[in-house]
Specification:
The protein is α+β, with helices and mostly antiparallel strands. The chain is built from eleven helices and eight strands. It has three domains: 88 residues, Acyl-CoA dehydrogenase/oxidase, N-terminal domain (Butyryl-Coa Dehydrogenase, subunit A, domain 1), CATH 1.10.540.10; 108 residues, Butyryl-CoA Dehydrogenase, subunit A, domain 2 (Beta Barrel); 135 residues, Up-down Bundle (Butyryl-CoA Dehydrogenase, subunit A, domain 3), CATH 1.20.140.10.
Length: 391
């Protein structure tokens, strides 16, 4: 499968439709949330951004590529890309429903039972229900096979005990899709199961983790006898590794193209700052700016190639290449931003801990090479599963 970058008249008409809808709503009722949210700023305007999710749902802008029978619009890949790019260009607020629409939704489409799809997909498509991801643990970060959280079946329920960490937006999520160990005698990849767990129950405790940026979008989640029905098992018991890997493949979806438009805006701000303070006259900084622009173009074409090579919609191990590209590029952009700012980047903009955009970019992007699979893990995946090298 190839990706045609030449848009048809119908594609251009769709772009105009998206722009028109966004202009109408972002200039009106939701003008106050333009530019809010996103990595490092997820604490901003939570209630209003939940309203934005519901507005997207009412407008039919969630689940664009999903089958019509499941509440989607069955739009082509290029039109999904167009939507995410236009959202980024318009400064639409950072999505609270990313994990709902881009991760658990496609997983249920691929592995869920008809009853699970009927129960859970409408809440995602409407923007009413938010999800978080229960993968990483204190002793199993990027090494997901080391999961120790356990679920014991008792009648028609699973009882879950254990801890998850770095759980984005768990403090506002309604449900969690979690990988747990259902076979106590199992090790590594075997004996894991993929459960859908309600967050609003006595056996779930969420504790925010304060980051270098001073914000707390990541959390620790403690399960102490939390329960979920056996009907909320996705796939077969013990087959959680396969389902979890598919979810990670979906994570490298079309939204990454919209993410790159956000990167482009950040790069433009760095260039403008360099022009304003004269830093662009430094040949070394100027070369770094040029490298950043080139890297962004390479990243876009790599992402397009990766997406279109996934005929079943699940990106393979090649997606690790994209993860390495964008995480390293974004981290380097943060370093470039503070180097352009010069000595002023060493001083907070205000008290007690008010950061500039450059400072926030620099601090938050240190995490880019860790979450979603560390650089080391991504390189191992590429070496073993793409290049065929020995473990």
């Amino acid at each position: 499968m190839t990706f045609d970058l030449d848009l048809t008249q119908e594609d251009e008409a769709f772009r105009a439709e998206v722009r028109g809808w966004l202009a109408e709503h972002l200039a009106g009722e939701f003008a106050d949330v333009v530019g809010t949210g996103g990595p490092g700023r997820e604490h901003e305007a939570i209630d209003r951004r939940r309203e934005w999710e519901r507005r997207l749902g009412a407008g039919g802008w969630i689940g664009l590529g999903w089958p019509v029978s499941e509440g989607g619009r069955a739009l082509s890949l290029i039109r999904q890309v167009i939507f995410h790019e236009e959202c980024a260009r318009a400064g639409a607020p950072g999505r609270l429903g990313h994990m709902s629409e881009q991760l658990v939704g496609p997983t249920l489409l691929a592995f869920g039972t008809p009853d699970q799809r009927r129960r859970f997909l409408p809440g995602i498509v409407s923007g009413e229900v938010l999800w978080c991801q229960g993968y990483s643990e204190p002793g199993a970060g990027s090494d997901l096979a080391g999961v120790r959280a356990r679920a014991v079946r008792r009648g028609d329920q699973y009882e879950i005990t254990g801890q998850k960490v770095w759980t984005s937006l768990a403090h506002i999520a309604d449900w969690c899709f979690a990988v747990v160990r259902t076979d106590p005698e199992s090790t590594r990849h075997s004996g894991l199961s993929y459960l859908l767990v309600p967050m609003d129950q006595p056996g779930v405790k969420v504790r925010p983790i304060t980051q270098l940026t001073g914000t707390a979008e990541f959390n620790e989640v403690f399960f102490d006898g939390a329960v979920t029905g056996v009907e909320n098992l996705v796939g077969a018991e013990g087959d959680g590794w396969r389902v979890a890997m598919a979810t990670l493949g979906f994570e490298r979806g079309v939204a990454t193209l919209g993410q790159q438009i956000g990167f482009e805006r950040e790069l433009d701000a760095v260039v403008e700052a360099a022009r304003a303070n004269g830093a662009l006259s430094d040949p070394i900084l100027r070369a770094r700016v040029a490298d950043a622009w080139i890297g962004l173009q390479v990243m876009r074409f790599t992402a397009l190639r990766t997406l279109t090579s996934a005929g079943d919609g699940i990106s393979g191990p090649e997606a690790s290449i994209s993860k390495l590209q964008w995480s390293n590029w974004h981290r380097d952009l943060g370093e470039l931003a503070v180097d352009v700012a010069g000595q002023s980047a060493l001083v907070a903009e205000g008290g007690p801990y008010e950061l500039t955009d450059a400072q926030r970019l620099f601090l938050y992007t240190r995490a880019d090479t860790i979450y979603g699979g560390t650089n080391e893990v991504q390189r191992n995946i590429i070496a073993e599963r793409v290049l065929g090298l020995p473990r």
